[in-house]
Model the fold of this input.
Amino acid sequence: MIEFQHVFKSYGRGRNILADINFRVSAGEFVFVSGPSGAGKSTLLKLIGGLEPASRGSIQVNGQRLDKLPARARPYLRRAVGVILQDTHLLFDRSAFENVMLPLAVQGHPWDSAASRARAALDKVGLSGKEDMNPIELSGGEQQRLAIARAIVNRPAILIADEPTANLDHDNAQRIMNVFRDFNRVGVTTLIASHDQDLMARYASRTLRIDPGKFADSNGPASPPDAGQPQSAPARASGARAEPGFGHPGESA
Done:
């Protein structure tokens, strides 16, 4: 489903943000990406989503090698991968409902079924009743939830999220994590970058830990190197493979 082989990422002539990263995520896994600010968590997710190219190495996502993917095929990759970034990229001249409808409209879904799916996605993230409001009228946390609704309305096969609960209170953070868990339970491969150790302790079955110059792949939540606490399972070396134990993933209608 997702495979990195000797992947490097740098900007200009600067240092490598990611260096010689190797891992494989199988279909249906639920994986956290952890590490300090600036370690490369967001960069890793952008590489998976095809939003940035690797400097070196091979990345395969959903059966496609990204560096060999022709431009005409990239829209199909983006349909298969739901991306939630810290910068929500919402359209502030459109209503919440119109923001969520946009991915379905681009694909040519019939209006009635698309509208039903958009309202269901808004309800799923707790924004029912606010569909006519513009994003500027919503709080930061509500904008984040709106971006999540837009990402899930397409029923992607892969869902990646960068700090999706960072601006949310405890109750809404739990609501959103339950949304991710529900999608994962119907087969959506899910990767979440987070600093939240409590969330990882509750939800993580596997964690990719990125530290400057280091990469570790572990079962369960990964402790920071200096935390002084044992991990829930021995860390796998970079490059090890692990097989995996409101609609179905990849469903088009």
Observations:
- The longest strand covers residues 16-25.
- The radius of gyration is 18 Å.
- Residues 88 and 147 are 6 Å apart (CA to CA).
